[in-house]
Amino acid sequence: MKVLVDADACPVIGKTEQIAEKYGIPVTLLCDTNDEMFADSFEKLLVSIKNNQKI
After folding, report:
1. Which residues contact 23 (CB under 8 A, 6 or more apart)?
2. Is 0.70 topped by the overall pTM?
3. pLDDT tens digits, one per residue of 29-55
Protein backbone atom coordinates (compact mmCIF):
# COMPACT_ATOMS: atom_id res chain seq x y z
CA MET A 1 0.00 0.00 0.00
CA LYS A 2 1.10 3.56 -0.70
CA VAL A 3 -0.77 6.74 0.24
CA LEU A 4 -0.97 9.62 -2.25
CA VAL A 5 -1.93 12.98 -0.72
CA ASP A 6 -2.97 16.23 -2.41
CA ALA A 7 -0.74 18.25 -0.12
CA ASP A 8 -2.07 21.62 -1.28
CA ALA A 9 -5.55 20.75 -0.04
CA CYS A 10 -4.95 18.34 2.85
CA PRO A 11 -5.59 19.84 6.30
CA VAL A 12 -4.31 16.73 8.13
CA ILE A 13 -0.80 16.18 6.80
CA GLY A 14 0.55 15.98 10.36
CA LYS A 15 -1.91 13.21 11.27
CA THR A 16 -1.10 11.43 8.01
CA GLU A 17 2.59 11.53 8.95
CA GLN A 18 1.92 10.06 12.41
CA ILE A 19 -0.16 7.17 11.10
CA ALA A 20 2.13 6.43 8.14
CA GLU A 21 5.21 6.29 10.36
CA LYS A 22 3.42 4.14 12.95
CA TYR A 23 2.44 1.51 10.37
CA GLY A 24 5.41 1.91 7.99
CA ILE A 25 3.26 3.08 5.08
CA PRO A 26 5.01 5.11 2.36
CA VAL A 27 3.42 8.45 1.52
CA THR A 28 3.82 10.63 -1.56
CA LEU A 29 2.78 14.27 -1.36
CA LEU A 30 1.54 15.81 -4.61
CA CYS A 31 1.84 19.59 -4.59
CA ASP A 32 2.25 22.54 -6.93
CA THR A 33 4.64 24.40 -4.64
CA ASN A 34 7.94 23.31 -3.14
CA ASP A 35 6.85 23.80 0.45
CA GLU A 36 9.52 22.99 3.02
CA MET A 37 7.00 22.58 5.85
CA PHE A 38 6.23 19.00 4.81
CA ALA A 39 7.91 16.17 6.65
CA ASP A 40 11.21 14.86 5.30
CA SER A 41 9.87 11.33 5.68
CA PHE A 42 7.48 11.90 2.77
CA GLU A 43 8.34 11.59 -0.89
CA LYS A 44 7.38 14.87 -2.58
CA LEU A 45 6.21 15.12 -6.18
CA LEU A 46 6.08 18.68 -7.51
CA VAL A 47 3.37 18.99 -10.15
CA SER A 48 2.95 22.07 -12.29
CA ILE A 49 0.99 22.96 -15.39
CA LYS A 50 2.25 25.78 -17.59
CA ASN A 51 0.45 26.80 -20.77
CA ASN A 52 -1.76 23.72 -20.44
CA GLN A 53 1.28 21.42 -20.57
CA LYS A 54 2.55 19.33 -17.70
CA ILE A 55 6.17 20.03 -16.84
Report:
1. none
2. no
3. 887 765 555 666 777 777 766 655 555
